[in-house]
Design a protein that fits this description.
A hairpin with a 5-residue loop joins strand 24 (341-342) and strand 25. Helix content is 16%, strand content 36%. By secondary structure, the protein is α+β, with helices and mostly antiparallel strands. The termini are far apart.
Length: 613
């Protein structure tokens, strides 16, 4: 914990004013005799709490704390941590009551002797560990922090999340790396998303923002290395650092192939360097976009030949709270000025893939963009009706950004972001899986404003306990998640729908039980049967999209998905191949049935069945 012992590494982030919050993260022990330490209610080096997970030579768990420098330990429970395994950690602080959860199981309850406020931190003792997906939520803490940087090197130094030197108004904290004394270097390492994949001979674009302490002469050394640090695949140096923030870029070409590399940034001179918005992208991306999408993943979607792309879609739109909801204006422009937000499914989105990039990708694959906007409703709170003006204006501005002339406010911003031509957005969906009186009232506000400003825009309403009655809609979004047999039975669902009512948009559907591990033939056949009913009733169902589309095999929070991937590979499930088969074999012509009724060939015609329907 905080102190002078060289076996301990400690870093803290946040505010000492935080109270009544929940800290969630994932932790993995890499080596050593202990587990890992997660800190909370950190008010300084003399006042802190930490949950020691796998301590006492990896035999016990306990909450330890320091009050004005006097350190002690709470009750201990037996427990061990397995090296190399990721663990879900959650600490819930409510006043002096603390609940500690490991893999979603309440492992310890603890009553703090004093205080219920403070920042959060990470620490180790005789152990090397990794942390990721660190999120803080609560009444007193509405910020997030995500970092996979580990300390490396042999000299004396430190790394910490520092709020004293913000990069800009929307990016308030930075990583401060300090080399104090001793021989060798001090650095930080980042393995990306479960290992950085490198291909020998391929070029990678490095970008970072950096500033240094007065008197630091540099340089900052950047390496791409193997996981054990023994092989250097590429190296470059950053010079010219000053006490002011600057952006630095470099091209790094890999000398070897490695699917588990790390990015290392090191100092071998005394001083401090602040780092922010550090990124590494392959030069070879889909459609050669700078900082673009992976060729294999984006290409797999393009191979489905989708006629439209719904984005950003699902609960990601709503968020766990309105503070964490997707707000498109925060996702455009310079990457360094995008604050990011905690996504509903347990990870933090940098919003590097934002509204502009979604529109751009839709254009790249020849799909109509379908934008889904928050309706002022999240999974936990709702915007008061009197305060909805900002959210309705967001919808109008989103349309102007996509379609407006370069002389308009938001059309000019689109042009400044590299796309003067309009994207021709035709569809906008109000909310996701929202319903009831609250949705009915808010939908009316969106409908009236959009219809008045953009009468040709197709407006989509949610079907969630019924459709809104306050205003009409062009399409209604129905979602279906069920088992193979029920999904197959849905093949006749639309046979009885009114031919004069609103069109249907099946925004999400999938077999979600009885699908095996990653999807199976029974699930795919059930979905295929349903799709035949959609095709047969194309006068009712205008659009349909399978969901969800992607899942990283290292963090699957929903099953099944159409495409699974890791840092270097991907595969499509049977459901994906059904989607691809239907999209690539669409009926495009009506074939007439005719009969020659001449004198030599008279008679009627008919249709018949035998032991079938």
């Amino acid at each position: 914990g905080p102190g002078t012992d060289c076996r301990s590494v400690y870093t803290a982030a946040g505010s000492t004013a935080w109270s009544n919050y929940t800290l969630t993260l994932q932790a993995r022990k890499l080596s050593g005799s202990e587990g890992f330490l997660v800190m909370f209610n950190v008010a300084g080096q003399a006042n802190w709490y930490r949950w020691n997970i796998g301590g006492w030579d990896n035999t016990k768990h306990a909450v330890q704390y320091s009050i004005n420098g006097a350190q002690t330990s709470g009750p201990q429970v037996a427990g061990t941590i397995t090296t190399g395994q990721w663990y879900d950690v959650k600490i819930v602080v409510q006043g002096t009551s603390v609940g500690c959860y490991l893999n979603n199981v309440l492992t310890q309850s603890f009553t703090a002797p004093a205080g219920g406020m403070g920042s959060i931190g990470l620490s180790t003792w005789n152990t090397q560990a990794e942390y990721r997906n660190i999120v803080v939520t609560g009444a007193g803490a509405q910020i997030l922090y995500q970092s996979d940087f580990d300390a490396v090197g042999s000299a004396t130094g430190s790394m910490m999340v520092d709020t004293s030197k913000p990069l800009n108004a929307t990016n308030g904290d930075a990583l401060k790396l300090t080399r104090a004394s001793g021989s060798g270097s001090v650095g930080v390492a980042n393995a990306g998303f479960w290992g950085i994949p490198l291909q020998a001979g391929s070029a990678y674009n490095l970008s970072l923002h950096a500033a240094c302490s007065a008197g630091f002469t540099g340089p900052l050394t950047v390496r791409l290395v193997s996981a054990d640090g023994g092989t250097v695949h590429a190296q470059t140096t950053i010079t010219g650092l000053t006490t002011d923030w600057q952006q630095f870029t470099a091209t790094m070409t890999a000398a070897g192939t490695d699917t588990n590399a790390r990015l290392v940034l090191e100092l071998d001179q005394a001083g401090s360097v602040w780092l922010d918005v550090v990124s590494l992208f392959p030069q070879a991306t889909y459609n050669n976009r700078a900082n673009g999408l992976r060729q294999d993943l984006a290409g797999a979607v393009a191979d489905m030949k989708p006629s439209f792309l719904r984005f950003p879609g699902g609960c990601y739109v709503e968020g766990a709270s309105m503070a964490a909801a997707f707000r498109w204006k925060k996702t455009i422009g310079n990457i360094s000025e995008r604050p990011g937000h905690p996504a509903y499914w347990g990870y933090v989105s940098t919003d590097g893939l934002g509204y502009h990039e979604y529109l751009q990708y839709s254009e790249d694959i020849g799909a109509e963009p379908l934008f889904c906007i928050n309706a002022g409703m999240s999974h936990s709170d709702i915007v008061p009706l009197a305060q909805m003006g900002e959210y309705v204006q967001d919808a109008l501005d989103a349309i102007e950004y996509a379609n407006g002339a370069v002389t308009t406010t938001w059309g000019a911003k689109r042009a400044a972001n590299g796309h003067p031509a309009p994207f021709n957005l035709k569809f906008i969906e109000i909310g996701n899986e929202n319903g009831g009186t609250n949705y009915n009232d808010r939908y009316a506000l969106f409908y009236d404003a959009i219809r008045a400003a953009y009468p040709e825009m197709k407006i989509i309403a949610c079907v969630w306990g019924g459709t809104p009655a306050s205003r009409p809609f062009d399409l209604m979004d129905e979602h279906y998640y069920t088992n193979p047999a029920t999904m197959a039975a849905y093949a006749t669902k639309y046979d009885s729908y009114s031919r004069s009512g609103p069109k249907v948009f099946v925004g999400e559907y999938a077999v979600t039980s009885g699908f095996g591990t990653f999807g199976n033939l029974a699930a795919a056949l059930g979905e295929a049967a349903f799709m035949t009913g959609i095709e047969r009733n194309c006068d009712v169902v205008s659009m349909a999209s399978y969901a969800p589309l992607f899942a990283n095999v290292n963090m699957m929070t929903w099953k099944p998905d159409a495409i699974y991937y890791d840092n270097a590979r991907m595969f499509g499930t049977p459901a994906y191949h059904v989607q691809k088969m239907f999209a690539n074999n669409m009926g495009s012509a009506l074939l007439p049935i005719s009969q020659d009724f001449s004198a030599n060939n008279s008679g009627s015609i008919g249709l018949s069945t035998w032991n079938t329907q």
